[in-house]
UniProtKB/TrEMBL annotation:
<dbReference type="InterPro" id="IPR000241">
    <property type="entry name" value="RlmKL-like_Mtase"/>
</dbReference>
<dbReference type="GO" id="GO:0008990">
    <property type="term" value="F:rRNA (guanine-N2-)-methyltransferase activity"/>
</dbReference>
<dbReference type="InterPro" id="IPR054170">
    <property type="entry name" value="RlmL_1st"/>
</dbReference>
<dbReference type="Pfam" id="PF01170">
    <property type="entry name" value="UPF0020"/>
</dbReference>
<dbReference type="Pfam" id="PF02926">
    <property type="entry name" value="THUMP"/>
</dbReference>
<dbReference type="GO" id="GO:0003723">
    <property type="term" value="F:RNA binding"/>
</dbReference>
<keyword id="KW-0808">Transferase</keyword>
<dbReference type="Pfam" id="PF22020">
    <property type="entry name" value="RlmL_1st"/>
</dbReference>
<keyword id="KW-0694">RNA-binding</keyword>
<keyword id="KW-0489">Methyltransferase</keyword>
<dbReference type="InterPro" id="IPR004114">
    <property type="entry name" value="THUMP_dom"/>
</dbReference>
<dbReference type="InterPro" id="IPR002052">
    <property type="entry name" value="DNA_methylase_N6_adenine_CS"/>
</dbReference>
<dbReference type="InterPro" id="IPR053943">
    <property type="entry name" value="RlmKL-like_Mtase_CS"/>
</dbReference>
<protein>
    <submittedName>
        <fullName>RNA methyltransferase</fullName>
    </submittedName>
</protein>
<dbReference type="GO" id="GO:0070043">
    <property type="term" value="F:rRNA (guanine-N7-)-methyltransferase activity"/>
</dbReference>
<feature type="domain" description="THUMP">
    <location>
        <begin position="43"/>
        <end position="154"/>
    </location>
</feature>
<dbReference type="InterPro" id="IPR029063">
    <property type="entry name" value="SAM-dependent_MTases_sf"/>
</dbReference>
């Protein structure tokens, strides 16, 4: 069994731990901005393909005492890097954390790179080149209280970049956060899902992927582990086929999105096409004042502007009040979830929430507010 660590957004550790357990992870334990777990190679591939919440899945290689730069150099050089890369493969090093004597991540990364290529030169007379954009092997080093943890990044690009969304709005919600919000809610695929402020469509698309049992990693060009020396092509092909076979043919209930901006609605439609959902999820241009409930019951989900990046010069108080009126008057029998990063604005909705869940949208403290609409 190998040791793995899934990096996640702060505050989502427990939610991600539950998801990893569902995927078959063992010895699951939450930490700061991540979850440690154990499993085999098949689990590593499956988690990268199926997990909706993590950013990266790291494979732990070693951990050693590290007081200064010399300790770091010797500790890295003591690892047999020929197991993981050959001189014709490119590398990139990402360093995080710091200690009293190692307090600059760029220097830490440079020291790690030097130790690796010096070992290669000693053994082979040749060395790997650095490719910060698209390396064959990405190495993650974390310094914490004079301890150095060394891992391989099996994901490559962050897993929140599903690959279906080249088109985004001005203040896009990360796909992983959208999936987390949906998981926090009581929405089930048998209920209609409607986002009247859908932007480029992230919430409806993530809901559709869940409802149709589509692996979020199916649209990515590549994962980090696919260029590793030990990559098991046959196992990976089997997991891809299993994921393809498990897809549901049609949505159990409709999933809709609308927005007043026709340009972002067009973006949402492009994104839906990119993940094969054009014939499943429905997007349309609609001003909030025109919105009515498209069914007798369901879940309405939205992420209105907070005044941080969007709508800074507009009267958002009136907009939030209008949102509250639309929900109250036109969505009786529904449950509403509203993500807001502005407490003062959220109070102008004029509805009493039945639940509030603290959420971080990037570094911005937000609340996911639940409203029972009678």
């Amino acid at each position: 069994m190998n040791q793995y660590f899934a990096t996640v957004a702060r505050g989502l550790e427990a939610l991600a731990a539950n998801e990893l357990e569902e995927l078959g992870a063992h010895a699951v334990e939450t930490g700061f901005c991540g979850v440690s777990f154990t499993g085999d190679r098949q689990l590593l591939y499956r988690v990268n393909l199926w997990a909706r919440l993590p950013f990266r899945i790291l494979v732990k290689l070693d951990e050693f005492d590290c007081i200064d730069a010399e300790d770091l150099y010797q500790g890295i050089k003591a690892i047999d890097w020929s197991v993981y890369l050959s001189p014709d493969m490119t590398i990139a090093v990402n360093a995080t954390g710091k200690s009293d004597r190692l307090n600059h991540t760029h220097f830490t990364a440079l020291q790690v790179k030097n130790a690796i290529v010096d070992q290669q030169m000693d053994r082979f007379g040749d060395r790997s080149n650095v490719d910060v954009q698209d390396a064959d092997v990405k190495i993650a080093v974390h310094i914490d209280q004079d301890i150095c943890q060394v891992s391989l990044d099996s994901s490559g690009d962050s897993l929140h970049r599903r690959g279906y969304r080249p088109a985004v709005g001005l203040a896009p919600l990360k796909e992983s956060l959208a999936a987390a919000l949906i998981r926090m809610s009581d929405w089930e695929p048998q209920q209609m899902f409607y986002d009247p402020l859908c932007g480029s469509g992230t919430l409806p698309l993530e809901a559709s992927l869940k409802a149709l049992h589509i692996a979020p990693g199916m649209f990515r060009e590549r994962f980090g582990f696919e260029t590793w020396l030990d990559f098991d092509q046959a196992l990976w092909a089997e997991l891809i086929q299993d994921a393809d076979d498990s897809r549901v043919e049609s949505l159990p209930a409709p999933i809709w999105g609308s927005d007043r901006n026709h340009e972002v609605v067009d973006q949402a439609i492009v994104n839906a096409k990119n993940c094969g959902l054009a014939n499943h999820v429905y997007f349309t241009k609609l001003d909030l004042e025109e919105v009515v409930a498209p069914a007798d019951s369901g879940v309405v989900f939205c992420n209105p502007p907070y005044g941080e990046r969007l709508g800074r010069n507009s009267d958002l108080g009136l907009f939030y009040k209008q949102l509250g009126n639309v929900l109250k008057q036109r969505f009786k029998g529904w449950t509403a979830y509203v993500l807001s990063g502005n407490k003062e604005l959220s109070q102008t909705i004029g509805l009493k929430s039945s639940q509030r869940i603290a959420v971080l949208n990037g570094a911005l403290p937000c609340q996911l507010m639940k409203y029972e609409l009678y």
